[in-house]
């Protein structure tokens, strides 16, 4: 290295590794930033330094062009842009790093997806002179889509705005407003000058108003491996090893979870069960294996297992399905052809796939959904797919390894799409819920409807107000119960007849027999809707506070009441805020793997399309929210 520093090889091997990606808009200084990190952290060799100095002089540049350390392609050097993913490796005494410098041009969204797909942290560069631009949003959205746990917003070129605190705060405010729509838990904002080196590796005293870490210090200390799933054991079989009649093993890479000899396992798709006999490696047998380990498993029983099968824990099985939905980034210049036969590669399995429908295309500038029949190069949308044989899948939010796939054109063998599985088919899951609903809403035999003894109209006249249902929906920690309780107190104090139905209360009694499967969640809301109807017919203002994640279930409840008597109140906030509040400790348990399918963390939540009221608790106080709901009732 150019300062002669050397690291102890054993210490180097034992260091943890952080993979991170950089992107933003064109000319934000991504390559210069990476060059500055390499240069100031003494992570380049003498010959590299001499080469870029020579190239800089030949180009007529006064100072060393640090961007040349990452701009490896000839076309990039000629155009002074990055057009491919440039990977670089470096280390400090505290940590090893793999950097993916991804392009900023809109036509290279596919490269951004490739570079960010394995990252644990993303750096979005924003030019302080330009502010938050389209590509800044695009990369932040892709980072959210790929479930990258940490995001750094590096406001670059602060030297060109005289290191203005006001300008930095303005950009932070604008980005936070956009980021509220994203699913990113951890965002750090750092003012830097990649060209001058301010706050990249060292603080140069030009931003005395900034008390946070330098970029390198943050990279060295941010928690890594938090995204690794150590709960759900998934072992896609890559190859069957049988050197002789006395040994039969199954080689592959543990994509998630951990395993020990003696653990009970199931083999998919047969679902036959056995126990792990040995965990074999070239360096000897292991007592336990972890995510990322490439091993050979032997099992106690003779079971027919081949490439593409999956070994999992007996009581922790992924979804086995041929129909599912996914976010798909189209990566080919030839546009998508619905109904065309493509090949899908998922873990070690390859199968024919058909893209049945484009549900919507995502506008990454506004994060709005747009109608579309196809996807073109670099477009991202939600699609429905059908495979020729069942796959063993998890939602991408839960397990990135078994929740991702690529699509290949069978004729050209070119990768045309990369996908993140969101769920099994909405249509299929809704059919399941409909069947459950049909069974559970059937009227008991030989029972005749008995009219109300005292009509709702009479009760409303005595109460002095109309009956109403206020349905508060939103993820855990958004503030539903807090606001609903405050609304009820204000209504009660003003003489109104009220009743509040809370999710936790009904699950301690009425719905104590239900779990949290999609079917049970739908039944939970069905029962609550019928209970709310009883209180409504008795002239009450009924306040219901339930996550109620499925849109169709909420719509069914709405249909139980007269028009204009049902008010849907969507309580929303940044998921990061909800995770920090964590009033019941659910997110903490989910992060530890103790809870699966928690709405707002790794469970699906379908936001209301046309709620009567939307309250963002990041921006509105409880008192203001209460006034908004009360004023709606008065009107």
Structure, described:
This protein is α/β, with parallel strands linked by helices. The protein has four domains: 9-221, Rossmann fold (3-Layer(aba) Sandwich), CATH 3.40.50.300; 234-313, Elongation Factor Tu (Ef-tu), domain 3, CATH 2.40.30; 319-424, Elongation Factor Tu (Ef-tu), domain 3; 454-634, 3-Layer(aba) Sandwich (Rossmann fold), CATH 3.40.50. The protein has 17 helices and 24 strands. The chain has a six-stranded mixed beta sheet, with helices on both faces. It has a six-stranded antiparallel barrel with strand order 7-8-11-10-9-12. It has a six-stranded antiparallel β-barrel with strand order 13-17-15-14-18-19. The chain is globular and about 85 Å long. Residues 1-7, 71-83 and 425-441 have low confidence and may be disordered.
Topology overview:
Layout: H1 9-14, E1 17-24, H2 30-40, H3 46-58, H4 74-79, E2 86-91, E3 96-101, H5 109-116, E4 121-127, H6 134-145, E5 150-156, H7 165-179, E6 186-191, H8 215-221, E7 234-244, E8 247-253, E9 264-268, E10 272-280, E11 294-299, E12 310-313, E13 319-330, E14 341-346, E15 349-363, E16 368-370, E17 380-393, E18 404-408, E19 415-424, H9 426-440, H10 456-463, E20 468-473, H11 480-493, E21 498-502, H12 503-506, H13 518-537, E22 541-545, H14 551-558, E23 566-572, H15 575-581, H16 586-591, E24 613-616, H17 622-634
Parallel strand pairs: 1-3, 1-4, 4-5, 5-6, 20-22, 20-23, 21-22, 23-24
Antiparallel strand pairs: 2-3, 7-8, 7-12, 8-11, 9-10, 9-12, 10-11, 13-17, 13-19, 14-15, 14-18, 15-16, 15-17, 18-19
Helix pairs in contact: 5-6, 9-13, 11-17, 13-14
